[in-house]
Specification:
5 helices, 22% helix, 251 residues, 10-stranded mixed β-sheet
Length: 251
């Protein structure tokens, strides 16, 4: 009997060229497919809730795949972790209904972006934060973050997606942001955003724009004009990948 399985994984994205399989490059998707094949003897390509970019991390990415294997879900977690590299960990596996899909069934996602504000970034954090020891108006950044809450057209914050037209989740660039805020945690200034979905590079482009607000190049109120412009050139540069984490996916 063919089973549909939901797999929750956590990974350090530093050694990988992103989620999606690419010829000749190490990716999360291909590494998982190899591990599943070793355990079940079947070649199947797990479908993720979204395609994280090269260097981006995940605390709880969700993927679905089908298998004829009768191995109990709990045993699959242990088996997968026995063959996966230490940079990828299976957290949970469960049987789900046939129609459940990691991407199409998702209702909301949460991302975090970590800025390290200390003068010297510890070397063991270098791949997991973006170091920014320079002056920033953090309260202005927090005000700017609040201006993207609600339903908006986020074209100004969307990179050109190489897969556009082939695997688009939505027909437009309109998304709903449920919460968007910055908070301090010691030497880290952390952006957390929860929304119905996200466009290619959208979170990193938001962070890059908030950094311009923090530097005084933009005012928090400029976010309204940037959203209205619906032009990528209106917003800030794309923030580096290493500070970004997919935190959770809701169904």
């Amino acid at each position: 009997m063919l089973r549909n399985l939901k797999l929750v994984v956590s990974y350090d994205g530093s050694p990988y060229s992103g989620w999606q399989v690419q010829p000749g490059r190490a990716t999360i998707q291909c590494t998982l497919a190899d591990a599943i094949e070793r355990i079940t003897g079947e070649r199947t390509m797990p479908q993720g809730s979204g395609r994280t970019d090269a260097g981006v991390h995940a605390l709880a990415q969700v993927a679905t795949f089908t298998t004829s294997s009768s191995i109990p879900s709990g045993n699959l977690v242990k088996a997968l972790n026995s063959v996966l590299p230490a940079s990828i960990r299976a957290l949970a596996v469960e049987d789900v209904p046939e129609g459940f899909h990691a991407r199409h069934s998702a209702k909301a996602k949460t991302y975090e972006y970590r800025l390290y504000r200390g003068d010297v970034c510890p070397p063991f954090l270098a791949n997991f934060v973006t170091h920014h020891p320079y002056p920033l108006d953090e309260s202005a950044m927090a005000e700017a973050a609040g201006r993207v809450v609600g339903e908006h057209d986020f074209t100004s914050f969307a990179a050109v997606d190489p897969e556009k037209g082939l695997a688009e989740e939505h027909a437009s660039n309109v998304r709903t942001i449920f919460s968007s805020d910055w908070r301090r945690n010691g030497d880290e200034f952390i952006y957390r955003v929860r929304g119905s979905g996200f466009l290619h590079h959208m979170v990193r482009n938001l962070v890059g724009t908030f950094l311009l607000v923090g530097k005084g190049t933009l005012k928090p109120s400029d976010l309204d004009d940037i959203l209205a412009a619906r032009k990528r050139s209106a917003a800030g540069a794309t923030a580096p990948a290493e500070g970004l984490y997919l935190v959770s996916v809701e169904y």
